[in-house]
Amino acid sequence: MNNMTIKKQLTIIFIIVTILPISILGIFHSIEMTDFITQSSKNQKYATQRLAESVETYVNFHVNYIESISYNLSQSQNWSIDYMTMLLKGGKIKLPGFIELYVGNSDGKIIASYPRNSQEGEFLLGEDISNRDHFKEIKATERTVVTPILLGRHSKKPLIMIEAPILQESQFQGYVLGTLDLTALKKIIIDYDYGIGAYPVVEDQDHKVIYHPVLPLISKNYELKNLMQQYHFEDRLLGDGEFYSTVNHRYEYLSFEKIPSLNWVVYVSQPTSFKTESIRNAMILLGIVLVATLIFTQNLAKLLAQRMLDPINVLIEYSAAIERKSFSLENFDKIQMTNAAKEFNLLLNRFYEMGKNVFRNREELIKLNLDLERRIAERTEGLVKDITKEKEIDRLKNQLISFTSHEFKTPITTLSGSIETLLRKDIEWEEDFIDEILLGMKDDIQRLEQLTSDWIDIVKIDSNALVLINEQMRIGSFIEGVIQGLKKPPYTEAKIVFKRCEASEHIVAFDIKRVEQVIRNIITNAIRYSKGNPTIFIRVYEDKESIYIDFKDNGIGIAEEHIPKIFDRFFHVDASRTRKTGGTGLGLAICKGIIEAHGWEIKVVSQLNKGSTFTIVIPKNEQVK
Q1: Cα separation of 460 and 456, whole Å?
Q2: Residues in contact with 26: Cβ distance below 8 Å, sequence separation at least 6, in sequence order
Q3: Region 358-377: what's the mean pLDDT?
Q4: Which residues are CB-neighbours of 377 under 8 A, at least 6 positions away?
Q5: CA distances from 369 to 317, 338, 339, 374 (A)
Q6: Residue 372: pLDDT above 90?
Q7: 122 burial class (0-12, 13-18, 19+ CB within 10 angstroms)?
Q8: For position 511, what pLDDT does the model report?
Q9: 547: part of which helix (H) or strand (E)?
Q10: Is the Cα dihedral 545, 551, 556, 561 positive or negative?
């Protein structure tokens, strides 16, 4: 930086100081986003495996029962209608998913059924099904057959037929046939959380849709077939890749797995935009911060350089005046820097001393010294005020850092201590003690996961990256479903009362998982701040403009001065109680973000020692039916 002006040097130094930490932050953020994408893909594959296992378990459980009936008949000489009906009836009672069960002879004629007088059955007693493909296949292969999905002729329900052969002395003597309702299978499929924006699909051996969130049942679906051809996965049992969905008209990342025992295929698909959008938003935010910081630091460098150069220019002028012998006290009074740093004013004072020696005017020198002392005192007072203000800002920052570090450090410290305890080789721990340690470690990990999840939700809300997957559902049914899912502590400690009414029958479009998160948080807070036996009353009512959902508890209540702050981040009405119960101070802030993202409103009314009432306000617009 030789021969460069002070202004340029300060500008370069500030730019380097700004870019260096932001670049390091960008590198760490990129690594974190890469890990997030990798983990998201792993989670999607795991969800696909879970889906395949659930579907296979459900269907094969019914297949095994059909095969057990055929085995009993194969080993028995008693083929009376009463005996066969008894076996079929037992299957219907134990497995209500079967619509009807039948026994047929080797010619394809149905000789027994249960129920006998069903109005929804596929076949009638005595009906000949020898021309059906599934009968021809079982007679030719003498193996259990699971048909592709079809709709019942009377019930119009999605079903499959499971047909097992009856073999006596290796000769085909007949078959046992069950028509299985797949409605319960759909519930198993949709109950699992596949991730944000992800959805499951189940296809049978003919690529017919058993479950798809968009396509109708039995329709042909070639999304997976196109992906397998694209990546040459035809002979593989599982795989994954990115493709363009002609159904949803977007690029998606798909993970699939075949079920060899059924020749079915399941897959989970997620829009690629959910991953790329997070990266793009993070990079845009980082770029905005970098540009804004550079502009700020450049202006700050210019300001500092100007404040440094002005006194230097004064000194240059003094030197020139002394050299020309034109220095005077009048000139000094006009060019003195009242807003310069203390050191510069002291230097100016030294020049004044030089002027005094030249003009030998002691009285003017004393007057000028007094004036300079007054100015320095005023500047010192201003600096003291500035320092006090900076200390207050630092104190607030330290409180935020202390809170955040404590929330993460406490479970990490506990985990570290537990691991060191288990790794000690000089002590042989009992299994009960090890189980207790592991349970504690699990709680700490869940605590860290909750903190991370809350931070991610806050970041999404701030960056408008919170994506809602809206589905239509009755308010009353949704609330009942949420309450039924609260089967673990601390929810088991509370009495939750909800009665359906006319207003609760409205159908509303909303993100089920996110609104459930809000309700769980409100109920958790009601339990956390209860006085003894917590009771929560949930009520749905309406007026001409809105639908209201009230959550009224019998807790300790909220002081009037705290109510405007309860939706602020890190705000705790009772810090000691929050520490004991694991609150982060982010829950209600996240709830407000989720509710406002739906275009709704959340309000609270509370009195100390009388409880609180949280109200969700849903406007009656195109969302409500």
Answers
A1: 6
A2: 286
A3: 68
A4: none
A5: 20, 14, 17, 9
A6: no
A7: buried
A8: 92
A9: strand 546-553
A10: negative
